[in-house]
């Protein structure tokens, strides 16, 4: 077993992203295409109680600058709607297949004082002792975990130190030490990472064991043959 490393004693949430947006009245395929040609991104914001959705739009270039260096899939943003600030989670972003530029973004309004459920990627750090000394192979079984936390505490990733993981040892979700700000939703019995024995090691061990037993089989075979020959005489 091994424990994950917190990195810092207190995990810091991501710096909030501010986006200037305005209400969108344009609807329909043709109207949305005109928006994109004008350098705008159509988007929607689901209300906190999920009772309705507000249509918005914002400048594509400014949005890309605000998103630069962000790798998380669920980010906390502040939408500046003509002076009215709305806290929201970026839930999904659709990109143009060829250009890679955003063509539509979905947000969900949140309260900064209420916990939300998000999926956070896991990044393995360190060199497992089972790999360094035992020649094993580190395999990351789980790429992300689901947690509950306040919107301001959302992080882009969890760094998990696997240095203490030995040969044929498994790091389970329940072993992750994420801090008091996060409540794990993913089942604890799931494996997050494992150090497996080198490929072919089991076969080699089986072959060695068979080799040790072979002389006994040959010896026994010779003794049986001698006994049969004596009986014939």
Low-pLDDT sequence parts: 1-11, 203-211
* Mass-distribution shape: elongated
Gap between N and C termini: 66 Å
Structural class: alpha+beta
Q: DSSP helix count?
A: 4
Q: Tell me the fraction of residues in β-strands, as a range.
A: 35-45%
Strand tally is: 13
In the CATH hierarchy, what is the class of one domain?
Mainly Beta
Going across the biggest sheet, name each strand in turn: 1-3-2-6-5-4
Fraction of helical residues: 10-25%
CATH superfamily of one domain: Ribosomal Protein L25, Chain P
Largest β-sheet summary? 6 strands, mixed, barrel
Written account of the structure:
With 233 residues, the chain is α+β, with helices and mostly antiparallel strands. It has a domain at 17-114: Ribosomal Protein L25, Chain P (Beta Barrel), CATH 2.40.240. Helices cover 23% and strands 36% of the residues. It contains 4 helices and 13 strands. The chain has helices at 29-37, 60-67, 129-132, 201-232; strands spanning 17-23, 40-46, 53-59, 75-81, 84-95, 102-109, 116-125, 137-140, 144-149, 158-161, 170-172, 183-184, 191-196. The chain has a 6-stranded mixed β-barrel with strand order 1-3-2-6-5-4. A hairpin with a 6-residue loop joins strand 2 (40-46) and strand 3 (53-59). The model is unreliable at 1-11 and 203-211 (pLDDT under 50).
